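Purpose: get a first structural picture of the assembly so the mutagenesis plan has something to point at.
Setup: two entries, given in the order below. No constraints added.
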Amino acid sequence: MTINNKENISGLTEQERSDIYQKYVDSLYSYGVSLHFEHAQCMDAIHDVFVKLFTSDIELSSEKTKFFLFRSLKNRLIDIYRRNRKVSYYSDLAPDVDYDFSLNINVLDNIIAEEDKENVEKQIEELLSHLTGRQREAIYLRYFQNLSYEEIGDLLGMTGESVRKLVYRGISKIRESNSILYLILLLSVR
Amino acid sequence: MANKQNLKNVSYFLNSPQFVEWRLYPSAELEEYWSLYIEQYPEQKEILNQAIKKFEEVVHLSPSALSEKKKSNLYERISASVESVENKKGRKKIYYYLLASVAIVAILLLTIPFNKFMVETEDYQALVIEELPSENIRLVVGDQVVEFDSNTTFEVSEKNGISTSNKEGSNVLFAEQKKEVRNTIIVPHGKQSVLVLADGTKLWLNAGTQVTFPTEFVGNRREINVVGEIYADVVSNPAKPFVVHTTNTSVQVHGTTFNVSDYGKDGYTEVVLVEGKVEVKSGEESVFLEPRDLYRKDMTGTAITHNVDLSHYISWKESLLVVHQKNVYDLFKYLERYYNVKFDNIEVVKKTKRTCTGKLFLSENLDDTMKALSVLAKIEYEQNGKTIYININN
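Result (structure tokens, whole complex):
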């Protein structure tokens, strides 16, 4: 079967598939690991979502592709979690139940002064520690993966508006000890 | 607003909580704060931009630990799966078409004798898979044998002999042969075939099945012999009844269509009727079946069950195994037959007496099937070469 220059079910060429894979595989892996899934489970789930994408005939714009992959991955991981309660970091996945979403902070140390590195790490840890797992996940998806509130809502099983509030609550929580920012916040209310 | 400051360095910003928070969560408020900051201290702008760049360079959240090698291995795996799914999609269409035309089904199954030894259970049990020699589908006509290495459709016609088609292409064989010649098709494990007889009757041959049939039906009966499992859509001809002979029984069609199978060894015989009417004869005994009747004959005698769920018996045609509270051990035995593998040690599965319900897609790839089975049967497995470790969850 020649697939090198031929379009297949997904309408993607081999080159396009490869590009999509290279573009998203790291983020997807990070996301899976952040949700506390083991390496092999993440790999299997990533395998499944790409196979699903490459064998489906739905047409996705490039910005929707990312969301499709994230949502499919989370669904796959939830399936894996449900059949394997050993990975029991969450007791349930209902929207109102919290679970751990851990973000490993990694500040590369060869291009930053040791003191700065420590401070930056400490500050990020401090900021993140005030958040719930769900808030961390929402913030990660919003600001590091650039997904929209609506898309994150879909991933977290809530509305876009609720995600907005969730992120907002997360941010205002860590702001309580920061009077300057809090003041500005009050001044700039829309 | 921020305190009066002289020219700051990058380090200053990196150590500022407002800065770190802004880079982490650039909310509207923080965006405003920092744009006001730049308005007030335009001379800091360049330094601030440097700090932003630095922050992006050095701070990684949840960095990927995937090596290039792992990434490219995974991609190869994905490509292989994509290709196999695409092949399957093409095949499925044919199945849907075929399904629509089917009226009657009768199936004969074989029990596999159990080896009666027990093994100590531990958390993980190893199943060693032994691959038995793989075979081709064979068409035997007289003393000639033609082999096919992929699933093939055979079509018998009085004029043109036997034409074949599979993914490699089409062919016409034995165009000039005697009408009375008996031909045999042998379908090995892991493969399936379709056979269209001279009268238009269509047979689906399951893995491990052998069917003997004439090029043309002469005489007053249409007769074929089956060892294994078939699903048949028989063209009606009351003047010339269609009879399937198996080792232990014969099934005669009264009316439209039927399906029969018999593995011929020390097992049981099952006939399931989907629609129409068939007569099952075994020695002196003769029974008529109604639709959804299951005829079963084994060492203990003959029994008829009414109103069975047909999908459990005919789903193999779609490479789909539908099971309802089926013993997991029996499923493993089924897979052995289907894939022509031997699971060493599966008595550990038998011991649990666990049953499962659902649909199992019989992929061409055993690992894919194991994956699905692990969900269905709530077992965990890990494959290492030819050994599969299974863990029965409680």
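Residues 201 and 266 of chain B are 29 Å apart (CA to CA).
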